Amino acid sequence: MIITAAGFVGAAYYEKDWHIYQHIANKVTADYILKLVDHGANVTAHQAFFAVRHGLLKPGEFDIYVFLGVCGMVFLAWQLPRFHHFMMRNFVHSPIKGSIRTMFTSTLSHASIPHLLFNGIAMYTIGLSVYHRVGPAEFWAFCTGAASR
Description:
Blueprint lengths: L1 H13 L5 H19 L6 H12 L4 H19 L4 H8 L9 H5 L7 H22 L1 H12 L2
């Protein structure tokens, strides 16, 4: 029980906008949903998402997995010739074009599998500890600013 309480306090510290009791309620609900799944009960997609978000992953892991998944989907879109014009217009940044959105969307774009793989490893290993140190808002602001040079 002491370890669980320490985990809730740590989670509340890292996600400053959540109250400690909300963490406890989310964890209890997620554990209940996971028990239902273990016993073969059907759960909704929302319940499954909730259980994964609040029961199995540390704070920040879900955000980083989603980011890496989006990077993977962008990489796959680059491989399809019919999306090439769309990708060039929306995922390649050039200051001459004057498009601000590409400054952000280009952070999701990777040129090769090794590029995607090494950036993903760095995001997971270094990014997770940075996420826990500074919090989610500051982490994503830093990533966006660093990637958009």
